[in-house]
Design brief:
2 copies of one chain form a homodimer.
Chain A (H helix, E strand, L loop, with lengths): L20 H18 L9 H8 L3 H7 L3 H13 L10 H11 L3 H5 L1 H13 L1 H28 L8 H17 L11 H13 L2
């Protein structure tokens, strides 16, 4: 963590104090999109005007960075999910837990309504659907790679169905969050419990 | 399949030709609600007027049967999900497959957008949330009972986490449908594959 920052940091991906004004405006714009969706506004109803007003920037600032609303929504969803974790690459169990937890960060939970609020529109609107897949597929692919590595090393069964296993790892977490089932299946150690239950059947 | 039907069929639950006019109107009203939601209308936007117009009935016909919109929506979701299957009660595996398949009927799939379209509003609106829980909890309880029975008979591990296992059985199906992942995890034998994968880790 280096608290110092100069203008040469402009291209860096990680947040740092003192980063240039543009990055601050970008973050305010993306947070404004997430706040509006989280309050229950539909993607259709979220206008560039409303985002600009909420973020305290001019519309031109938004249009300079994002060619259209789909691109802005895609970046907002990416920002909500946060960066993919650095995987230790040692045990399949630890890597899978890290991947599930990466979708359950406090930041992602703060915007827990966003995925649910986007879903109806993702289904209706092909451009939004493509946007959503473009955001989630690289994340899904990382989990596939961990599962394939486990098969290759012999940690996992040779005949494991990778796609089905991925659904078994990610599905319960999504449903528990979206249907607000925390009273039935608590958040504590959620990722560990799911991974251990899946691995009990998936181990070689 | 008996094509004959008399007026003594009035109290029966299954559809039959020639059943009384009230049942026909009820069905038209519930289908109208599902169609409007399935087209992407929000629950807030679905008005009694719009339902009456779509179903070809007067508003009074609706108000005679349902005290308010939440009760009408609850019945529509119940109708979409269809009756719970008769469980053979022999093997845990067969019963779990039947329960997952009961949520994946052609009728339920025809209205595949409805759950997704309701979700944002279920989250925002407490009355709708309670309505949704009242519809899904009895169904979830049936699955819990099958799992508890399996623990009691020794088919399932004594230390099985029933709530977590339920989430592992129902979560993948919901996510595959809602995120339209049929290209990655096909519908064919979906229930069997999930149940077998879960049981591999859950069996005693």
């Amino acid at each position: 963590m280096n608290a110092m920052s100069t203008s040469t940091d402009a291209g860096q991906e990680r947040k740092a104090p003192g980063r240039p004004r543009n990055a601050q405006a970008d973050e305010a714009i993306l947070e404004a999109v997430l706040e509006l969706l989280n309050e229950g506004q539909s993607a259709a109803a979220v206008s560039i005007e409303a985002v600009a007003a909420r973020a305290g920037v001019g519309k031109a600032t938004i249009y300079r960075r994002w060619p259209n609303k789909e691109a802005l929504l895609a970046d907002a969803v990416r920002a909500m999910k946060g960066p993919l974790p650095e995987l230790a690459g040692v045990s399949v169990r630890e890597d899978l837990i890290a991947l599930i937890q990466a979708n359950r960060t406090p930041h992602a939970k703060r915007y827990g309504n966003v995925t649910a609020c986007l879903l109806p529109e993702i289904i209706k609107d092909e451009a939004l659907g493509r946007m959503h897949r473009a955001v989630i597929e690289p994340r899904r692919e990382v989990m596939r790679e961990v599962l394939r590595r486990g098969i290759a090393t012999g940690e996992l069964r040779a005949d494991l169905d990778v796609e089905l296993t991925q659904l078994m790892l990610s599905g319960p977490s999504m449903v528990q969050s979206m249907l607000r089932l925390q009273d039935l299946v608590p958040d504590e150690n959620f990722a560990e419990k799911i991974v251990d239950a899946v691995l009990r059947g998936a181990s070689a």
